[in-house]
Design a protein that fits this description.
single chain, 280 residues, mainly beta, eleven-stranded mixed β-sheet, seven-stranded mixed β-sheet, globular
Length: 280
């Protein structure tokens, strides 16, 4: 486990969560942390079958040299929903990189809904984001990651800085989805139509155990939200892939939540139930 304080300037935080199935439902069977990254308590706003957890980072953001490491294990037959109360902020860096490393494992017949709020990168931030999700043939997953470059409310654009992002899903040790990107405020990819086209918000939503019928329903939702120019959806085998490119993180969250409300009853067996923290 990482040391809580590597130096006076750097926060090194590590959170380990394990969800287990008990006769009365899913429990948070392991909750260990060092440094400022924690879950206060398990929540059951729906019923005992699904354990909701809110990951808290009390400092509210990362400065240069900070590293947050998250390990999640959802054991056989357990069902967890994990989210965050607010955006994860990455402040300006001079030399050292801010890192978030997330390793997630979902066992046989287990289900995970990974629904964090966006990563918000201030101008001149240096960021590494790594997420690896390991599934079995019988586990189920719905999740998303959202990236916001700059602060539109403050008229701050992401003109300088660097973000290396990787998002991987493996099933039975075989790659199901691998995406890696390197974004820099000075690159053409930030401004060109074949890249981000000057859009500060990009997001990806993934869901397993989907089929063509789910794909058609999601396309209808996209049309209802009038987001045809900023959201695309494809189906690769049983993996549904939704992408958002636009101006506002709020629109990405709203659209993805609407898509989640369609997918969840079909793949997870439960109607959507928005975490209360999203309304605060």
């Amino acid at each position: 486990m990482l040391e809580a304080n590597k130096s006076e300037q750097d926060w090194q935080a590590h959170l380990q969560l394990e969800y287990s199935r008990r006769p009365h439902g899913t429990v948070l069977s392991k909750n260990q942390h060092t440094g400022p990254l924690l879950v206060q308590k398990p929540l059951y706003p729906e019923h005992k079958e699904i354990c909701h957890s809110y990951i808290l980072h009390p400092p509210g953001g990362l400065v240069q040299g900070d590293c947050l490491q998250l390990d999640i294990d959802v054991l056989e037959n357990a069902h967890a929903l994990v989210t965050t109360p607010a955006a994860t902020k990455f402040y300006r860096c001079e030399e050292k990189v801010s890192k978030v490393i997330q390793s997630i494992s979902v066992s046989e017949q287990a289900k995970l809904e990974w629904l964090p709020q966006e990563n918000l990168l201030f101008n001149e931030s240096l960021v590494n984001l790594e997420t690896i999700i390991k599934l079995t043939p019988e586990s189920k997953f719905i999740g998303w990651e959202m990236l916001c470059l700059g602060r539109k409310a403050s008229n701050e654009k992401y003109t300088s800085g660097s973000c290396r992002q990787s998002f991987e899903i493996w099933r039975n040790d075989e790659p199901l989805y691998i995406e890696r990107s390197h974004l820099s405020g000075s690159q053409d990819v930030m401004t060109q139509p074949w890249g981000l086209d000057n859009k500060p918000v990009s997001a990806t939503m993934l869901a397993t155990n989907c089929d063509k019928e789910v794909l058609l329903q999601v396309r209808e939702i996209i049309e209802e939200h009038n987001e045809k120019t900023s959201i695309s959806v494809t189906l690769k085998e049983d993996l549904l892939i939704c992408r958002y490119l636009g101006e506002q993180a709020e629109k990405a969250r709203s659209a993805f939540a609407a898509i989640w409300s369609i997918i969840r009853p079909i793949t997870m067996g439960y109607n959507s139930h928005n975490p209360r923290i999203w309304s605060t």
